[in-house]
Amino acid sequence: MAIASLEAGMGASEAWGGQAAAYGSNLTVVDKVTPDMMHLIDPHWYQFPPMNPMWHGLLGFTIGVLGFISITGNGMVVYIFTSTKSLKTPSNLLVVNLAFSDFLMMVCMAPPMLVSCYYETWVFGPLACELYACAGSLFGSISIWTMTMIAFDRYNVIVKGIAAKPLTINGALLRILGIWLFSLAWTIAPMLGWNRYVPEGNMTACGTDYLSKSWLSRSYILVYSIFVYYTPLLLIIYSYFFIVQAVAAHEKAMREQAKKMNVASLRSSEAANTSAECKLAKVALMTISLWFMAWTPYLVINYTGVFETAPISPLATIWGSVFAKANAVYNPIVYGISHPKYRAALYQKFPSLACQPSAEETGSVASGATTACEEKPSA
């Protein structure tokens, strides 16, 4: 019995020793990297010990959940918007492009990251690493510029009103083509020598090289952030500033007119249409806000690396991946909650998801008009 106890104690000691060695000072987060990837690893990462496997497990689980929700949700958005006659409008083509971009992002990025989290390092080689990072950059750029076009469309309808030139199918398709070509040009640049795509600190995903000391490489991140982060942000703020201003002026005029006529409200069909546009503007603004919440962590990580303002740990790079991937989940949820015609079409095509849509929403679909009451708070 004493011998058995001694053997058990020795076994436990060996197990503990192996675990301690894994997180000791002799090993680094780079040790599991495959030989063909070593030339892409920045010396900065050699100072960090291996990450706790728990973080890889949590990251893999989170990405798996986000991937399932995003692929299912965005797939349903694309299907419903393209198969429902009342939703086939030029403006909704932009919504479909947004959902399609988010759908492709998770189809391309979730499976490789899941496998890499299992092996605790990137296992698909340098070319796949480049393509993975390129896909993330491409679809992220497409998303933000599509949302910018949605903001411009809302500005056109709400601020300019009847004086505005309506968006046509060809106009929407031309904008979508321009977005794809513009985004593709920016995301191919690192593959042609302006910066490069490398494994991130957690070694399970790939992105831009923000640790390079070359100012040619750093300049890409700075210029890219101007055209794919700050410019869209300023254009969206511009659009929504005037949208909110126009809505406030309209509501003020309605209240004053109602007061003069001694009535509670002047809600005509024209006012209801304006209210619907305002509701859609709120939905778009919510989606855009969530996008910036999702991509700002990546921007902060990249800028921290470029300007060397603080040390970046492998664990910190996980949050950039999680927040960015979560962006692809927001849009179907936002539209499913806030778009009555989409929700009613969803109930019709997938009855098992129905939660007793109101008569108001059903009537909205039947009449072909989007029901959105400004007095009611957004869900």
From TrEMBL:
Cellular component terms per the entry's GO annotation: membrane
InterPro entries (UniProt xref): GPCR_opsins, GPCR_Rhodpsn, GPCR_Rhodpsn_7TM, Opsin, Opsin_lateye, Retinal_BS
Gene3D superfamilies, per database record: Rhodopsin 7-helix transmembrane proteins
Pfam family membership, one: 7tm_1
Membrane topology: Multi-pass membrane protein
Residues in G-protein coupled receptors family 1 profile domain copies: 73-335
Keyword list, A-Z: Chromophore, Disulfide bond, G-protein coupled receptor, Glycoprotein, Membrane, Photoreceptor protein, Receptor, Retinal protein, Sensory transduction, Transducer, Transmembrane, Transmembrane helix, Vision
Transmembrane segments annotated in the record for this chain: 58-81, 93-115, 130-152, 172-194, 221-249
Any one biological process term the GO annotation gives: phototransduction
Entry GO MF terms: G protein-coupled receptor activity; photoreceptor activity
Primary site of residence: membrane
Subcellular localization, as worded in the UniProt entry: Membrane
CDD domains documented for this protein: 7tmA_photoreceptors_insect
SUPFAM superfamilies per record: Family A G protein-coupled receptor-like
Record function comment: Visual pigments are the light-absorbing molecules that mediate vision. They consist of an apoprotein, opsin, covalently linked to cis-retinal. May play a role in photoperiodic photoreception.
Family per record: Belongs to the G-protein coupled receptor 1 family. Opsin subfamily.
Protein name listed in UniProt: Long wavelength-sensitive opsin 2
Species of the source: Papilio machaon (Old World swallowtail butterfly)
